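wait is this the right file?? whatever heres the structure
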């Protein structure tokens, strides 16, 4: 009787040798309780991972799915083939927007034990533009600072940790939504998520109104908000002493008295950092009466973090792309891009055991934690991966796809 030797597993090339480690981190956080849905065909968790891989690759467009031609990806997902772009787009209807937002918030909380100190949240809004000419009646116009004009689209509100740049929570609303109407809602959500660890929030003057200030005071969340330089404020600035004017010209901060809307609040004025900057002085309102103006100014300057996050999301995760004209699919699609960012930063925090000195922006993160040349083979549910670059032996479990990845040294 002839003995037939067992066929050797087929060895295939890949350019994603770093991806299994990131997928293992993602699946170890317990996010499946938010993202698991019963459906036919491809599972909701498989489709979630595809949206995340697209975002890590710098895209939010199902049409770019064809660019993920790496055979390793299908093996990691436990499927023989990838779904079509149409299937991926239609899958957005399977996910509740609230569940995706909860997954983003949970991904932020996953690394809470490795953060030190209390959290300051920077809040800002960004208009996602709609450039199409169909169904324009459904798309409302809102102000876009990047384009310096009103644009049709949806309005994204982000609350960002000023230390790490992770998204604490978010909200996608109609394009005409007034920023001041939502600041108290975001503050209450931040308080519910962070509790006593929330030190306060900072936002620009677009979120400031008499009603929003009243609601913020009622919420009990400390805040520093920009304050419009109306005629009464300009008169206060004109009445400053020569010494105070000199302090502002030197880039300092001074007290400007009580807020005209609420005597429990205080105004501060902040001068430009450089003598060549002819703007300012800027005025801010705060509920922190016992903190000095210089410390308040230094804390408010951390608001740049949310602007940096928006730029990195636009250039690294295709934030401005809308998948359609309906609100719900865009809420889910944008949520997956924000989730991808949180997971990328969370992986770096876990590797360092604390906030790393340098947090890589999306393109740099892709080069070190997603890409990588090598070969792989599949035996039943085990994937043997051989990176070309020197690597230490490792073992990763992927419970969502019931696969195990072994990295050869």
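ok assuming it is, sequence goes like this
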């Amino acid at each position: 009787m002839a003995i037939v030797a067992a066929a050797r597993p087929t060895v295939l090339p890949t350019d994603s040798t770093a991806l299994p480690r990131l997928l293992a981190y993602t699946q170890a956080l317990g996010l499946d309780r938010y993202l698991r849905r019963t459906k036919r065909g491809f599972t909701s968790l498989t489709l979630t991972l595809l949206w995340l891989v697209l975002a890590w690759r710098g895209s939010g467009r199902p049409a770019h799915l064809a660019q993920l031609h790496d055979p390793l990806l299908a093996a990691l997902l436990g499927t023989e083939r990838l779904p079509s772009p149409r299937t991926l787009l239609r899958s957005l209807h399977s996910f509740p927007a609230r569940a995706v937002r909860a997954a983003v918030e949970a991904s932020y909380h996953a690394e809470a034990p490795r953060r030190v100190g209390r959290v300051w949240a920077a809040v800002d809004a960004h208009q996602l533009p709609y450039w199409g000419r169909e169904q324009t009646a459904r798309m409302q116009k809102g102000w876009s600072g990047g384009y310096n004009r009103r644009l049709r689209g949806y309005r994204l509100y982000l609350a960002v940790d000023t230390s790490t740049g992770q998204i604490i929570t978010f909200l996608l609303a109609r394009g005409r939504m007034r920023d001041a109407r939502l600041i108290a809602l975001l503050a209450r959500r931040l308080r519910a998520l962070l509790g006593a660890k929330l030190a306060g929030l900072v936002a620009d003057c677009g979120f400031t109104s008499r009603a929003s200030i009243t609601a913020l005071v009622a919420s009990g969340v400390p805040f520093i908000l920009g304050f419009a330089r109306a005629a009464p404020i300009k008169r206060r600035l004109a009445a400053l002493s020569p010494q105070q004017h000199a302090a502002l010209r030197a880039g300092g901060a001074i007290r400007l008295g009580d807020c005209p809307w609420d005597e429990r609040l205080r105004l501060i004025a902040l001068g430009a950092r450089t003598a060549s900057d002819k703007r300012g002085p800027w005025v801010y309102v705060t509920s922190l009466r016992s903190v000095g103006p210089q410390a308040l100014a230094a804390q408010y300057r951390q608001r740049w973090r949310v602007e940096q996050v928006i730029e990195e999301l636009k250039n690294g995760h295709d934030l401005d792309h809308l998948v359609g004209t309906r609100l719900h699919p865009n809420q889910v699609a944008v949520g997956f891009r924000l989730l991808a960012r949180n997971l990328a930063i969370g992986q770096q925090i876990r590797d360092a055991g604390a906030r790393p000195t340098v947090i890589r922006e999306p393109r740099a993160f892709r080069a070190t934690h997603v890409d990588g040349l090598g070969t792989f083979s599949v035996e039943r549910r085990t994937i043997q991966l051989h990176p070309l670059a020197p690597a230490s032996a490792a073992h990763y479990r992927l419970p969502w796809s019931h696969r195990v990845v072994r990295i050869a040294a």
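The chain is about 35% helix and 25% strand. so i think its the right one actually
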